[in-house]
Amino acid sequence: MQKNNQTTHLKREVLIRIVKAFNSDNFTEQIRLIPLKMRPKGTDVSYRCCIHKERAILRDRVIAGLGFSIEDSKEEIPLSDYAEKSRKRTQLKTEPFLTILDEACKGCTPRQIYVTDLCQGCVARPCKNSCKFGAIEIINGKSVIDPSKCKNCKMCIMACPYNAIVKIKVPCEDACPVDAISKDETGTAKINFEKCITCGKCITYCPFGAVHEKSQLIDILEQLKNNKKVAAMIAPSIVGQFPGNINQLKSALLKLGFYKVYEVAQGADITIKNEVEEFEEKMENDENFMTTSCCAGYNEFVKKHIPELKSFVSKTETPLYYTAEMVKKCYPEIVTVFISPCTAKKIEGFKNSNIDFILNYEELGALFVGKKIDILDCSENSFEKKSSKQARNFGISGGVANALKFKIGKSNKMLPHCINGLNKDTIKELKKITKDKKLENGNFIEVMCCEGGCLGGNSTLNPSKNALKTLNEYLEQSDDID
Amino acid sequence: MLALLEDKYIKSEATIYVKENFMEKIEVKICLGTSCFVMGAAHLQELAEIAPQKYGDLVSVSGSPCLSLCTIDWEYSRAPYVKVADEVVYEATVEKVLEVIEKKLDNAKK
């Protein structure tokens, strides 16, 4: 499914309206009015059964945008109260980071095998014969599946000469690489947080836009408003995510009120050096292979799903870790905000006291729009610390492996294998490698949770193809790592 | 294959028309101001590839700095905006823009 669709449009509009409400004289009232302003009396009901349901769902989107779980929300509490609560909280970094809008979710049918009207009620009845579980009966001349007996083996689908039997998909369940999301008996999706790696694929793939990130937008706005010194640490994948170039983006961030802007690529330069040392040491000790450690979704995956792989994962810290450490060392009082392509980094931020808040690209976009800052109007403001070409390329699949290979140089004994996106197939592959304790034809595995790397993160704004073009232009202006 | 043939057909018909009637090129401007970009204009950039393939020289597509359409009552909710000649397309999608282009080409032929 394309990332740009009506659900992303709605979600972004809600975020922008939250920012606008924050800038207004009456925050709580303006928040209360968001669903009503988006669906005023007499407007066309575009998506749901009636205007009231659309407003109810928009209300939930606002609650998630204010940083609360829909699961814990109460209908009797007015939106304005949530708005007030959001500004008063001090403790925010609470798991889980995802929330499901049950009202929005109920739109789709549970996963099942279903006989459509195309069933001709034929004499041969290959479906009935093919079913080993006796789940198919002929009622009124048409095949009917008894869901209590059906085992989803799909034999009937293959047997039907009219293609009359289909498997009804549940996009979030199909998208989740670790089977952490499923519909319960009420038809609402539930996330099993014991299994969830917060990769955000369900956010992208739900056609009803029913999965939200709990935003930290208000908390960051509050810091900026109170004239706190706030540092923005921008992920390497941000290049190409906004109009203009990266130096204009830096100006735009300063205009928003950030005190300093850092490229996380500068931390990536440290990651490269440390990871190369670690790799060489491991190879000298005849270890079979090593994997990367910079993708938060992958780290969470290893922890929750293949703990035996942990000993092969690099102990080197992430680029964000080194960047945040450096920033806090220079300015102990500063509030740090990581500007992130994905949800998974919230887990890392949660565990690291040097990282105070996480803002994703969509939320940053909402900040710019809500505060009427056009990046193309901003002057260029270059970064004091020049990061290397290899570090700036960390956000694409293959980028980390290439950086390490380049750093090792001529004595290159690194044979990388890149896992471009965690999905059911690549997970199978990783499980096999872990079981064998061996990587065929290689000694280094780079794992990126999202397809295409961070450029494919759940909150990216520009399709990878376009972003890659801008990134490559930026890389051409950058120097190789020494 | 069929689609390809159809494309060629449209193109040749229209090209002949232009040659005979000196039709003005249809200019498509995708607003790449921050509001539009965030609201989905980034995904409209593929029009720059699709339109020339489909209509040849008849249509030119380019990105544009903010067209200032969002500043009127700050209607960002209707972004992204695209201008097809003098017509503004609200909440633009690739399909919507192509539809307007086709309409304009048809009108020109009449």
Could you characterize the architecture of this molecule?
The complex is a heterodimer of chains A (482) and B (110). Chain A has 482 residues and is of the alpha/beta class. Helix content of chain A is 41%, strand content 12%. In chain A, the strands form six sheets. Chain A has a four-stranded parallel sheet, with helices on both faces. A three-stranded parallel sheet of chain A has the order 11-15-14, covered by helices on one side. Chain B is an alpha+beta fold. Chain B contains four helices and four strands. In chain B, strands 2-1-3-4 form a four-stranded mixed sheet. The interface between A and B is medium-sized, with 27 and 18 residues.
Short description:
The complex is a heterodimer of chains A (482) and B (110). Chain A has 482 residues and is an alpha/beta fold.
Question: How would you describe this structure in keywords?
Answer:
heterodimer; A: about 475 residues; alpha/beta; four-stranded parallel beta sheet; three-stranded parallel beta sheet; about 40% helix; about 10% strand; B: about 110 residues; alpha+beta; four-stranded mixed beta sheet; disordered N terminus
